[in-house]
Amino acid sequence: MRDKIMNRWSTYEPFYVSFNGYKVADIVITSHALSRWDERVESDQGGIEHICEFLWDKLKHERIVPYYANEKDVYLIDDDLVMVAEFLEMKDEIDIAGNPLHKMVVVTFLGRVSQDIQLRDLKAYYSWLRHTRRMTLVKHGRKRK
């Protein structure tokens, strides 16, 4: 999904958005992120085009912020929606100064903080998930013997 606007003929207008040290020129939605969007965000407003337009608009208006200050993979949209994304350099794509452009690969949507209280502290949430899975495995291991 790209957004290029030309004000005059024969002028170069950058078609990227600066975000968190990256120059985002493209957005990629994984199939997992698409299914999580339908489950946890909006079931009636789906589709890759809708999600890309939503994210592109939030990027342009600087409404996406890192969830934690020193981590670069979990982001908070409008102080509510938690998203996991990674950034990859695009091959053969540079800006006018010769710097590489990036694509934002949306890995998943974790949900809304306003609906799922556990998302307020992700580290505790993931610790809880690991513990419950471990206990489930231990419990199933005892049944088999």
Structural class: alpha+beta
Largest sheet: 6 strands, mixed
Q: Largest sheet, order of strands side by side?
A: 1-2-6-5-4-3
Classify the helix fraction into a percent range: 25-40%
N- to C-terminal separation? 53 Å
Any low-confidence stretches, pLDDT <50, length ≥5? 4-8
- Spatial extent as radius of gyration: 19 Å
List how many beta strands DSSP finds: 6
Beta content comes to 25-35%
Name the helix and strand elements from N-terminus to C-terminus, one letter apiece. Answer: EEHHEEEEH
Number of helical runs?
3
Cα shape: globular
Mean pLDDT: 81
Commentary on this structure:
It comes from Paenibacillus cremeus. This is Periplasmic protein. The chain has one domain (17-132). The protein has helices at 31-41, 48-60, 122-144, and strands at 17-19, 22-29, 64-66, 74-77, 81-94, 100-112. The chain contains 3 helices and 6 strands, in the order ββααββββα. It is globular, with a radius of gyration of 19 Å. A hairpin with a 3-residue loop joins β4 and β5 (81-94). The longest helix has 23 residues, at 122-144. With 145 residues, the chain is an alpha+beta fold. Helix content is 32%, strand content 31%. Mean pLDDT is 81; it is low at 4-8. Strands 1-2-6-5-4-3 form a 6-stranded mixed sheet, with helices on both faces.
